[in-house]
Write a structure and sequence with these properties.
Alpha-Beta Plaits, six-stranded mixed β-sheet, Rossmann fold
Length: 312
Amino acid sequence: MKNVIEVKNLTKEYKQLRAVDDLSFEVHEGEILGLLGPNGSGKSTTINCILSLLDFSRGSIRILGSEMQPDAYGIKKEIGVVFQDVAVFEELNVYDNMDYFCGLYIKDKATRRKYIEEAIRLAGLEDFKRFFPKQLSGGLLRRLNIACGIAHKPKLIFLDEPTVAVDPQSRNNILDGIKALRDQGATIVYTTHYMEEVEILCDRVIILDKGRIIASGTNDELKQLARIEEKVSVETQRLSGKYIEEIKAFPNVESVDYSNGLLLIIYKKGKNNLTELMDYLKKEDIPYNRIYSERPTLNDVFLELTGKELRD
């Protein structure tokens, strides 16, 4: 499989802080790679080094087969970057914003017009071409920000939390647009704190912490790293402490929590946990409204690997 990005032994130091620590990974052509990590894990520093926006202490970076340098303009024209902070011109309308950014790379007016119209359709901005940024909702503004970053049809796209603080409809539109970009042949590096988006979009995931890779693989491969095997939730009222203690004593139970009428049981292993629990509820004549089981989510794995303490 062809590598679009090759990072080898990347290290970035700030005085006493090593923000990126001997990092090596590849991004394959045509995939969406989720680059995840808690705040301060080194994600932004890694991306800025890849884009040659930061000098780094050691290592090498190759993009599209060539060494990345600050003056590698031939490579940079094949890259689209959409940062978390919206960066558009308030004095330009939607179409003219896109024309400006696309014009940095595409000089032919007819080609540029065609590309802009395609990006407008992809972002769902057909009815807002003449609107100015201050007239757009937060979701539309995010979609404009993405459209400006990808209108020149880059081969490699970096998307930094593109759905933060948008409504569900805009989020759905953005996610569909990202899938369409991948289907059209783009390679995408995607950062987000929304794990459900990663499960929907990403072909492969890298989790960083303290500047190092602590896990990588497909969503299914990462879920196999989870210490827990199954989560069972039961809606039941007035469950006494006696029953909770007896459930805690089940052979495969990792933990039990009961609050606001919801019993949550975490199992560390086993295949017949749900049957055992239902038999117990029936035997003890404990009424319940609903009971359901689920496998570990990517969010469960992420918290297990990086911890639950708050980060700055």
